[in-house]
Structure prediction request, 429 residues.
Amino acid sequence: MDTIVISGGKKLRGTVPISGAKNAALAIIPAVVLSEGVCRIENIPNISDITLIAKILSEMGAIVKMVNKNTLEIDPRKIVSPVASYELMRHMRASYYLLGALLGKFSSAVVSLPGGCDFGVRPIDQHLKGFMALGAKYRVDGGMVHVDCDKLVGSNIYMDVVSVGATVNIMLAAVKAEGLTTIENAAKEPHIVDLANFLNCMGADVRGAGTDVIKIRGVKKLSGTTYSIIPDQIEAGTYMIAAAATGGDVTVTNVIPKHLESITAKLEEIGVQIEEYDDSIRAYCDGKLNKCNIKTMPHPGFPTDMQPQITALLSICEGTSIVNEAVWDNRFRYVSELRRMGAQISVDGKIAVVEGIENLVGAPVKATDLRAGAALVIAGLSANGLTTIEDIGHIERGYENIVGKLQGLGADIKKIVVEEQIPAVAAAL
Ligand code: EPZ
Prediction:
């Protein structure tokens, strides 16, 4: 697997452009399936998760054209089957958005059960609850979820758990259902609002996205459109934390500051200086960084997708910080890797106690998932000495050109491409 090598201790300085939001793009691209025309999607992050979802759509018959590295034109009209490719889908959880999109288009869908990941079980009971409320039945057979109905009819759905994925999937299934669907206790993330805006650009009638009550009045037809994805607030927060961890001075550009409010507030509490502008934020340090307690919550709370990154920063802040991961069951697997760099962190279930130390020391570590990998990059940038990070495929799933962007900020970082070792016997054949 490819490796990142970082020689730490360099202050990051300069500006870094933020790419389109991964989790908005992963909801909007499957939504194109519902359209009866060509959709042009701009400001898409150039990351492997997007390549995969685009490949799944083209395998299903869509005509997918890469206009440039951040723009796709997709014609879904040749998709005639509600069955998505098992093999490809197993590699990415977000492909389960095809359940809602195919159900909304064909009143039927056959999609691979999403894989688990490194932070615990990832159920879909709320997704299925929503589909059944709209009149569908489901069964699981051979690792595939089959969802079918005669006709989708709008309904009132109360989410037992605030779920981004279930909110997205129910929106996709409901936009062409007969009548009114109300989703209560809906997720309010910026990417939910972005999806609603995209659906409305296609001719849907979705109101209330961004609040905990979303109302969707079914329409007969959705047309092709052109749409630009919002900036990625998690990518932006990651670079702001990297600036803080290296005592640097970084401005993230092409952001929507309001989407980063909870991240900015916590960084200021730690002692990071923040200057906000219309579409950029400057983060810099001019002194000690202090302990801070974190509890992850659904938006607008502190995002769970920033938890590993801020924990890496807290490991070199003065004092003892408590990190409460209230969204996922087991999102501290990366802590054992941070400990290899000298971090003093103890974990008990959903709580991590972080004893701040003067500095981390570079070491060979492994990325266990996307945000864990980002946390290890931040730790490596701040550490004394050399850090090598294996399994960086996880990181490249969600961060466009992370090595290039960090080099642009003065980091001593490079990517080592590890040639696949062909077993000797195969080579001899
Ligand atoms: C999305 O995952 C994101 N992924 C995750 O980001 C993010 O961590 C998560 O939302 C929370 O913000 C994408 O958008 C592609 P959930 P999702 O359904 O939709 C429970 C990243 O790093 N739950 O909001 O799978 C679940 O177990 C990724 O970019 C149920 O109980 O998350 C969890 O405890 C990692 N039943 C909580 O809800 C369900 O049917 C939130 O999960 C669904 C979820």
Q: What stands out?
A: Residues 22-23, 26, 93-94, 122-127, 161, 163-166, 187, 304-305, 327-328, 370-371, 398 surround EPZ (CB under 6 Å). Residues 274 and 370 are 26 Å apart (CA to CA). The chain has a mean pLDDT of 94.
